[in-house]
Amino acid sequence: MVSDSNKTFTITDLAREFGLTTRTIRFYEDHGLISPTRKGRNRVYDKRDLVRLKLTLRGKRLGLPLTEIRELLDIYDAAQDEGEQLVQFLATLRKRREALEQQREDIEATLTEIRAFEAQCRKLLDAPAPRVTRRRTPADSN
Length: 142
Hints:
- The protein is mainly alpha-helical.
- About 65% of the residues lie in helices and about 5% in strands.
- The chain folds into two domains: about 1-65, Multidrug-efflux Transporter Regulator, Chain: A, Domain 2 (Orthogonal Bundle); about 80-125.
- It has five helices and three strands.
C-alpha cells in the first residue's frame, strides 16, 4: 500500500490487497460502489474506498446484488448513527436468508424427485426382460 501518512491507494494496491483484477475494481467504480479521486490519469483511492470495497466484497459473498450493496453503503455514508444502517442491513439479511431457505426447499424437492426417477429406472433395469414370442407367419416357412 501507499504511504500511511495520507492513506491513499492505487488501483494496483487495492487489486493486490483484495485479490481482484483492476478491471473488477473499475467495474465496482462504474456501479458507484467506490469513487476514487483523480490525479492526472491515475485513480487515487482513500480509506473510505478501501472500506467500501471490503463491504462490497462481503455483500457479494452473502449473495447480495450490487444494487442492494450500494444502497447499504449509501445509508452507511449518510447515517448519523449506526441504528438506521443496522435496521436496513437486518432487513436485507432477512430477505436474503428467506430466499436461500426457499432455494434449499426447492433443491430438496428436486432431489427427492430425481431420487424417485432413479429408483424407478433401476427397478425397470433390474426387472427381467419380458419374453417376446413371435408368431410364425407363412413367410417364416420359406
